[in-house]
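Reproducibility note. Readers wishing to regenerate the assembly model reported in the main text can use the exact inputs given here. Chain order matters: entities are listed in the order in which they were concatenated for prediction.
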Amino acid sequence: MSGKESGYLDMELLRFTTAGSVDDGKSTLIGRLLYDSKAIFEDQMEAIERASVGKGGEEVNLALLTDGLRAEREQGITIDVAYRYFATPKRKFIIADTPGHVQYTRNMVTGASTANAAVILVDARNGVIEQTRRHAYIAALLQIPHVIVCVNKMDLVDFDQERFEEIKADFSKVADRLGNKDVHYLPISAKLGDNVVEKSKNTDWYNGPTFIGLLENIPIEHDEDLSDPRFPVQYVIRPHAEKYHDYRGYAGRVAGGVFKVGQEVAVFPSGMKSKIAAIDFGGEEQQEAFPPQSVTIRLEDDIDISRGSMISDAKNQPQQGQEIELMVSWLSETPMALRKKYMLQHTSNEARCMVTEVIHKVNINTLEEITDDKSVGLNDIAKIRIKTTKPLFFDSYKRNRNTGSLILIDEATNNTVGAGMII
Amino acid sequence: MEKYTINHLRELEAESIFVLREVAAQFENPVMLFSGGKDSIVMFHLARKAFFPARVPFPLMHIDTGHNFDETIKFRDELAESTGTRLIVKYVQDSIDSGRAVEEKGPNASRNMLQTVTLLDAIEEEKFDCAMGGGRRDEEKARAKERFFSHRDDFGQWDPKNQRPELWNLFNGKKNVGEHFRVFPISNWTEMDVWQYILLENIEMPSLYYTHEREVFQRDGVWLAKAPFMELKPGEKVEKRKVRCRTIGDITCTGLTLSAADSLEDIIQEVAISRVTERGGRADDKRSEAAMEDRKKEGYF
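Running the prediction on these inputs yields the following structure tokens for the assembly.
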């Protein structure tokens, strides 16, 4: 890394998702983060003040910051995922802010799909409720590497340590059952600012970090799968220029592991072996490539490779198959149909598939398996089996979020109707 | 053990390059919209890196209102020339002359809205199935809801309440004949990221972004440049000031910042302490609470 990429040019990027409803203080928390980190500008603040007054509100309604569409502002609800940005001197943050109600499960899943961390708000008065379990379930299903449980409105329970510990114990039972990873607990008051940016004077018994301190310091270098070298080929680069007459480069983004020049690799679907001759990026050669870098790989041998091919380590290879079990989150108002053909996108590969079996559905509020009703509609989550027209080269989603995820597309409408996580 | 991490600028760069390559792979006839502003310059720089050593596999297209800063046009032409990229220019004036668009009247008149007509006509005429733009989610609240791959119906319209879910890095560019996509490769960049990246990569920028002396006048608290087609209102007077552009668009709606910043480091410093968004100086956004959403629904950039 050059000397130039230091200081403010050298920050880590953390993506986190927040799910919640109007009442649990989510907007207040986000508003405070944005305001305290100076990511809300004066003209935005003026616009919100104008709009708050226009709606007859007395206090400035920070939800208006994230509710960007006219319909959202009119109805006072968040419909869609809203992306927000802020930075501290240590990290740059991308928030995927999603509505928390059960009818917006698909938006929560969307926001969670790219997140390093999930922020779950719990009202200290209410404790772990149905909605909390739902958010924890989605965080576990989407394998979000870190979970931050903010026990909010601590001011309304007199900053009582016992209440906090009780909620913590309740949530950890849920998390153990679901397999949530790296769970952190914070006692906060988003409204008054306790333990958000500044350490609270009201929680002497709490020795952990503030919310912003935690966001700044959660280690994220192991969030990507660095063990399994996977490189889905996106595009073949063949310059039509005399100087690069024999150039043939495979452009893509590293989906897992570390690739090195000289490494022996296997290419799928053919299974042919070769060695990495060079790794190019924007006119410079580099010795290795790892996620989430976008690079161009050249191989020593001329083998048949096109978009949809997968390059892996020669020894550490992906699974392959045409009958695949997965968890699916249904995103469409049109219910899933058995035996119907769907288009499937997996890495840079495309295939057609049909759903051969619904194994069970999940009640995401009680976390129970449902086996007596196998109709899969909007916002449902189910374990299914599919059969594809050609082999996929994949890993389990638990191992690798890039090579373990896929989407289903309705051929009639071209809409994305299902999000799949391979088991 | 070695630490396999990259910084925020390199991660954003990798994401944008991934999106640009998806466009080249998924669409038959894509085009990159180019305004000559910093966002489109960065987007084009990313495209050059994405396909190197091959040329960028799509043309650039400028929707020209005719109300430009001279520096923008010169910069645009030189960039296309030096990189061997095909440049298409479509003129709003042609849409007006053919009666497809009607010019606004009065001192607040702007051709900004009319660009939509010219743009949609160009997409249809040239049979583009994808138009990439330098829009960023942090710019404006309607843009915060925008997808990387944004579907447009055969009228070129955006339906914000009925967008396709976008998960992981799986972008669905499937469409019916006559429909097209708008793709925003730098969706996740902030104004600060853009400037930091320009510094990191040492990207050449039009002189307008740096401080210079110019004849300007003030309207509704915003400094605007004097130009032949700008009508002055009573009480407005032209004076010379040291200014620079924070965004570059049509001259009629581009607010100038009083500034002495003459280096990228100075500009970054200025962005860091600014308490007003970059679009705060854009008259086109001030028309109503949902000005951007309404324009986008009709097919604006």
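We highlight two features of this model. DSSP finds eight helices and ten strands in chain B. Chain B has a mean pLDDT of 88.
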